[in-house]
Amino acid sequence: MTRPLLDDQLQPVPLPVKRTMLEDAASLEPGAGAVIGRFFAILQSRREPVAAPSAESFRQAAASESTFRTLLRALARYAPDVSTAAAIEVKAEWVSRRPKPRPRRLADGEKV
């Protein structure tokens, strides 16, 4: 990712986090800059404390389970002071949306 694009994505991010992510730009996970920027912009617009974001902020920042996982990994690595306790509820929602495996059948047609 080009540094100017990443810098634009990280505008709403607190300076220490932004600085660390820019220094580590070459090894950032794809999408990490975008989702972190979106997450902190949502926190600002909702006027939530950085240390205690709501589950709704996590929902709004990530429209897919993979983006949600990217957000959690990026927060753990670059912003460990941000509480992810509210993300547990969102994680459960994503897990419940996963397709359920079909019941297996034995050779005689009986379900397992």
Describe the structure.
With 112 residues, the protein is an all-alpha fold. The protein has one domain (3-97). Helices cover 56% and strands 0% of the residues. It contains six helices and no strands. It has helices spanning 3-9, 15-23, 32-46, 55-61, 65-78, 87-97. Helix 3 packs across helix 4 (55-61) and helix 3 (32-46) crosses helix 5. The longest helix is centred in the middle third of the chain and has 15 residues, at 32-46. The model has no long low-confidence stretch (mean pLDDT 92).
Task: Please give the structural blueprint.
Elements lengths: L2 H7 L5 H9 L8 H15 L8 H7 L3 H14 L8 H11 L15
Structure described in brief:
The chain has about 110 residues and is an all-alpha fold. The chain contains six helices and no strands.
Q: What structural class should be given to the helix and strand makeup?
A: mainly alpha
The number of distinct β-strands equals: 0
Helical residue percent?
A: 55-70%
Number of structurally distinct domains: 1
Question: What's the Cα radius of gyration?
Answer: 18 Å
Low-confidence spans: none
